[in-house]
Write a structure and sequence with these properties.
353 residues; alpha/beta; Four Helix Bundle (Hemerythrin (Met), subunit A); Rossmann fold; 2 domains; seven-stranded mixed sheet; four-stranded mixed sheet; 11 helices; binds 5-S-methyl-1-O-phosphono-5-thio-D-ribulose; S-methyl-5-thioribose-1-phosphate isomerase activity
């Protein structure tokens, strides 16, 4: 089974995704700062996986306190730790969702609550966020598999929204896994996803391991494939979805959406309810991370541009809701009008957030 992380005896083990697909190296991290750095440097990435890693970081953070301590002694560090983790990556809202869950838990403690109790509760919360995300991905897969309409179809995906980007199984790749299990996949076209190559390095790695038929393409090949009627459906993940359905996902998703729209290919976003940010009215309010210019100047160990080439490297873009055919969530498929569908869902689920 492909996994991005496992938590054992107060240590978070992360599969170093920077080294995939060439080597599978696991890093054992036992303090919050090293996990924060692992998130920043993309050892672990993908919206739900970032949230899970941050949750385990907080569970580990409180372990350093002596049995005699109480919650009041940890509180100043707790605030600093929440802040540190919150600064790691700005776009994926799942991180904020996980941190908010810990802040809510913290409100249930008193200053004199024994640290032993806090440790157990924080560990339970991290484990349950992780288990929930895994169950959520399986539910997304089940709902999404119906989009094949019982046919054998070809699907295109962008970036990596797989087991490596979640607690396991994946969102967009969860749908593809479920479709494959039902015999509905003829081929998956995998955008390589410049500049960080999550498609080539991670999605291709996952599909290869699972024996799901795929073909790796450069990002610029997608439109040509559609022009030849070779793509039936597009499915991608998301980092944050505004109340009107505008969706931030890996850079290039918007371009793919425009191509799908032009060629009449339905495009769905598979995402857990924790990726919807109901505080944001529309996508222009989503903070977009800009990453280091060297991610564009270099491919692996090879420099492919002048060393000081000026670079613009936004890591995400925002696809306007009208380009999307729907959202596959753990609660079912939301269809246009998406703003209304999200509002209906939030009325039903608001209490759970
Ligand atoms: C289920 S993961 C969904 C998204 O987080 C994914 O598509 C994506 O954009 C990941 O970006 P990354 O920069 O690799 O963290």
């Amino acid at each position: 089974m492909i996994a991005a992380m496992r938590y054992e005896n107060h240590v978070l083990h992360l599969l170093d995704q920077r080294q995939l697909p060439v080597v599978e190296t696991w890093l054992a991290l036992n303090n919050l700062e090293s996990i924060a750095q692992a998130i920043e440097t993309m050892v672990v990435r993908g919206a739900p996986a970032i949230g899970c890693a941050a949750a385990f970081a907080l569970a580990i953070d409180v372990q350093g306190f002596a049995d005699a301590d109480s919650f009041g002694g940890y509180l100043p560090q707790f605030h600093r730790s929440i802040q540190r983790l919150g600064q790691t990556r700005p776009t994926a809202v799942n991180l904020r969702y996980a941190l908010a869950a810990f802040e809510d838990l913290a409100k249930t403690f008193e200053s004199k609550t024994p640290i032993k109790e806090v440790r157990l509760a924080m560990e339970d919360l991290a484990n349950s966020l992780f288990a929930d995300d895994l169950a959520t991905c399986h539910a997304i897969g089940r709902h999404g598999a119906a989009l094949a309409l019982g046919q054998r179809i070809s699907v295109i995906t962008h970036c990596n929204a797989g087991a490596l980007a979640t607690a396991g199984y994946g969102t967009a790749l969860g749908v593809i896994r479920a479709m494959h299990a039902a015999g509905h996949i003829s081929v998956v076209y995998v955008d390589e996803t410049r500049p960080y190559l999550q498609g080539a390095r991670l999605t291709a790695y996952e599909l290869e391991k699972e024996g799901i038929p795929y073909q790796l393409i450069t990002d610029s090949t997608a439109a040509y494939l559609m022009q030849q009627n070779r793509v039936d459906l597009a499915i991608v993940g998301a980092d944050r979805i505004a109340r009107n359905g505008d969706t931030a996902n890996k850079i290039g998703t918007y371009g793919l959406a425009i191509q799908c729209h032009y060629h009449g290919v339905p495009m769905f976003v598979a995402a857990p309810w924790s990726t919807f940010d109901l505080d944001l009215e529309h996508g222009t309010q989503i903070p977009i991370e800009e990453r280091h210019p060297d991610e564009v100047r270099w491919i692996g160990k090879e420099r492919v541009a002048p060393a000081s080439a000026p670079v613009y490297n936004p890591s995400f873009d925002v696809t306007p809701a009208p380009f999307l055919s729907g959202f596959v969530t753990e609660h079912g498929v939301l269809r246009p009008p998406l703003k209304a569908a999200i509002a209906t869902m939030s009325n039903g689920k608001g209490a759970e957030r």
